[in-house]
Design goal:
CATH class: Mainly Beta
CATH superfamily: q2cbj1_9rhob like domain
Number of domains: 1
CATH architecture: Sandwich
CATH topology: Jelly Rolls
Distance between the termini: 42 Å
Bound molecules: 2-oxoglutaric acid, fe (ii) ion
Shape: globular
Keywords: Plasmid
Radius of gyration: 18 Å
């Protein structure tokens, strides 16, 4: 089977009705999952890339950006027209507005070692409307690093200033403490036990989310594709040097 063919086949077969169904499920449940999105051989190429990255970096937490992903297979996925089309269709069908060009803010997050705690349980909103999460490596034993989400707690803000206010309230020691206490079974918070090779989609801008920690000796690697900054044209954002 050729490279990424499993994923491309599924993507190419999606009708507008299917995409509407995905948007509906994200609205209703907070997250959509496409099981076995990656074929085993594609997933193992990405897993090999993760393990050599971690060996090279001395078993500590590291985030790689798109220009550091050559040879991982994740660069090919991020550049694939079939994959990009899913995001523009989901945006226009799901959010009812014209979709901007698909340029991803793409990250590969590898959590391991002593620094796991400081990179876990940090509840946040993403700056981008749609987030795709592709788990590459999830520990099979001990703490699995579940994904936590309180779905769709806000709309797309019309003004960048309101967005900053939401983020400031969330990025506060007291709020984080309250959310962490809810992580162990609070209402409205969903626990997702991630499965490598599945593709998960959610409204990252609209949903409070984070990951649980894993054990120091374990590895949790997730690829993230962030798409469409609702405040890309904001004057204030540019003035603040964040544009
Ligand atoms: O790794 C994860 O499960 C989530 C990461 C995340 O939310 C982010 O990088 O924005
Ligand atoms: Fe996020």
């Amino acid at each position: 089977m050729s490279y990424l063919s499993n994923a491309k086949q599924w993507l190419s077969a999606l009708s507008d009705g299917d995409v509407r169904g995905i948007a509906h499920e994200i609205n209703k449940d907070g997250i959509f999952c496409a099981p076995n999105f990656l074929a085993a051989e594609d997933l193992s190429q990405m897993q090999n890339f993760v393990s050599s990255t971690i060996t090279r970096e001395g078993r500590q937490t590291i985030s790689l950006k798109s220009d550091e992903l050559a040879g991982s297979g994740l660069d090919d996925l991020g550049n694939s027209p079939e994959f990009k089309a899913l995001f523009s269709r989901l945006y226009s069908i799901g959010l009812g507005r014209p979709a901007p060009d698909v340029k991803f803010y793409q990250i590969l997050r590898c959590l391991t070692g002593k620094s796991v705690t400081e990179h876990s349980l940090i509840f946040h909103y993403d700056s981008y409307a749609i987030t795709a999460l592709l788990p590459i490596e999830i520990p099979k034993f001990g703490k699995r690093g579940d994904f936590l989400i309180i779905p769709n707690t806000r709309g797309i803000r019309s003004n960048y200033l309101f967005n900053l206010a939401d983020k400031a309230i969330l990025d506060n020691a007291l709020t984080q403490r309250i959310l962490r206490s809810r992580a162990s079974g609070g209402k409205g918070m969903k626990h997702v036990s991630l499965v490598p090779g599945n593709l998960y989609l959610f409204w990252g801008y609209r949903s409070i989310h984070t990951n649980e920690p894993v054990d120091e000796g374990a590895v949790r690697a997730t690829a993230l594709f962030h798409y469409a900054d609702p405040h890309a044209d904001s004057y204030l954002k540019r003035q603040l040097g964040r544009g």
